[in-house]
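Re: duplicated header lines in exported structure tokens

Our pipeline writes sequence and tokens for each protein into one text file. With two proteins the header for the second block appears twice in some exports. Here is an export where it did not happen, for reference. First protein block:
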Amino acid sequence: MAEARGSTADVHESAIPAQRVPSWARSKVTAGRFGDALPHLALAVCFLGAFSLLALLRYERFGSPSWDLGIFTEAVKGYAHFGAPVLSIKGPGFNALGDHWSPILAVLVPAWWIAPSAATLLVAQAALFAWSVGVVSDTAARVLGSAHRGVLVGTAYGLSWGLQRAVDAEFHEIAFAVPLLALVGRQLLLRRWDRAAWWALPLVLVKEDLGLTVAVVGVLLVLVGRRRSTGAVLVLFGVGFTALTMGALIPHFNPQHQYDYWSKLPGGQHPQLWQLLVVPFTRLTVWKTTGWLLGIVGFLALRSPLLLLALPTLAWRFSSANSMFWGPDWHYNATLMPILFLALVDAVDRLRRSERFPGLRGFAEGMVPASAGIAAACLVSLPVGLGGLGDPAAWTPGPHAAVLRAAIAAVPPNVRVEASMGPLAQLAARDDAYWLGGSKQVAPDYLCVDTAGWDGGPTDLPAYGAALHPGAHYVVVFQRDQVTVLRRT
């Protein structure tokens, strides 16, 4: 969605009292010349290359940590073929819109037409993350009045463990939310209230819970921007769309006609209010994750109202009964990173102009270069993302990857195939792919089984295929280095 343009925004910005105009508004950095944007564009291009390299190296060595890349590959392939985004990996005929409300995935269709591969999704996510790096860097430069400060904050954000873990976790729909949230935060910091509202609207197409984040943008417009009518509309729209998707749209496409994630709340589908409010604070992992999030910005984000944008995401994660959502792993923290680093920028600007906290000015100014050092230290010590490239094994696919590629070549295109984790995403790009053992109604044409690292795995693979699908008979057409391809006779 394009930014709103016109004289209205300019009138409102010029009406801000002089004492409230931040220092960036008078800086040469805000002149709008193309040369001013070059450092931030260059930084974004560097991160595009780094994120793409990291993701594609993992892809080439079949290092998928879950079936998610295969799932999103099937969804985009469905849209590209002008059909429903069916996720055969989750079950025959399972519609992606019955799991999460993410129709924004259809935006990737033109890229899929050019390069129909799961790797296309990985590069797309790298581009979206890199775009957000450029936005954060340029915004920091404008607010803090210095290009090199902007680049330091942008670098710290790009290296942040939240983004790095998301790249490790491969493609997810939140890749679209990351630049959108960066753009919303940018417009709020630059007091472009109407543009902030417009950039917030597409968030409801990324994931169902982000409607609540849209509502919080409306709250900020009311409290900070004094835009009561626009803010009220955004609050009603965000809350209403969330209720619509969870209560009607997702259940309509769901096989059981329900929203599956209500059961993830403490107490099941009908939790008590006290459980939602109290239980999260009793979990040590929640406190650790909170420390990790605020610590990378020196806890200065607490000084900015932008931090309110993180509350809806933290609320559903920390109140969930699924412990996977509580910690710093996977991709769940990626959407919080642009909020935290733009809140840091806002806090530094506020504190250096404040007369109330003179002792914090030096600390705030020092956090700009320190944030990059903290991010780099986390990157290497965890290690996550680019920090993992220090391992020589990350740069070579290895002989087992070559065997998996040969096995995939033994499976014809456009057939029904069940596969184990490694080759699943690559098969999903061209076949009707299922998780191994996930197609109970109809026996697949092929099985692609990788038993490497499978303790107690089957040794008689034809018998294993017959056990999975009674009445079907399979013969081995490829077998090498614990990778077997079987064809149904």
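Second protein block, exported in the same file:
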Amino acid sequence: MAPYESDDSTGATQADGELRDEMRAERRRKAARYVVPVAVVGVAAATIGLVPALADSGDPDLPKITAQELIDKIAKSDVQQLSGTVKISTDLGLPDLGGLESSLMSGAAQGGGGSSADPTSKLTELASGTHTLRVAADGPEKQKVSVLESGAEYSLIHNGTDVWGYDSKSNEVYHSTAADSGKAEQHETPATPKDFADEVLKSVDDTTSVTVDGTAQVAGRDAYRLVVKPKQSGTTVGAISIAVDAKTGTPLKFTLTPSSGGAAVVDAGYTQVSFAKPAASTFDFTPPKGAKVTEGDKAGKAGRADEGTGTDQGGKASKAPGHGSAKDLDKSGFDVLGKGWNSIAVLDTGSKGGVPTGSASGSGDLSGFLGSLGDPVSGKFGKGTVFSTRLINALITDDGKVYVGAVDKAALVKAADAG
């Protein structure tokens, strides 16, 4: 079906710009926890979206709507209660890391006291393959996401001030409180098409084309198709398609295809959804008998005590690694180069020598192995290694800087040369 209307200019207001800046800052703060090579996995999973190619059943006949009207409909959507099943498929084109993936996730879990139930350690699992999730929400204080596995289940539950993570396979529990950790959403893993659609739409600016391209039916509900495309060249993002529920304005499906073509990088959507109030018991949780319980707040306080300022060799206070001196340094401690879809985040790790060294199992040097996964590059900046996926690419230079973005290798090298 032909597009209803093209609306390349979304008329962003100054308030919209400030909101986008805040969103980008938060996204980069999350990205800081996953510096390459984990950045290649974690950033893509945490900032872009995930899911499945679901067959649409027919093109329902709906009233015409403009792109701006559909964006407004999403923004005004106030669905507080829902439950359903989401299928997520992700194809970032990552190499087979064998047992290293588990080791990296175990390392990430150290921030939660080494618990396999720590939500942070689960992000990398959603960065590849196909997953089935059950989701439920009842207002801002009650949400639940369960990742269904073969013979096991991982659940993340937010109920009031409590945040629980439970891994049935290991019978381990992770617990923290929203009051102590700041915000419950710090522990939440994006799981629904709306999570991902919100991230994309807050970033829409004059570098973006937005159109309505027909209708679809997803999970038995009539929907409009909203298509978001970068106007810029050099980005790895080809197009993003969002199926928006015609009645509630809730995104039902999110599909991101790369500029290189081929299958979707991430494709997520409901296979079943209900907007009825979930049972109160859905959000109840008591640690099972014999389960190992890790209090995340206590584990995190020690880490937070070490953050912030340090001392240099002269004994003077210095800012934490990652601070920049450019005038466009944002609140998160990143320099941000470029604009829109060509934005590149720059982090100075303060660690010389390029690809980080370490051990996945307590012995041996990983630098050679990790280096073999990337492409060596050189330029005015010196030498470095580029780690590539079908979406997020990252350059680690030998002087300790990391350049990350949804851009091609040439753009990263150019940014490093300019920096």
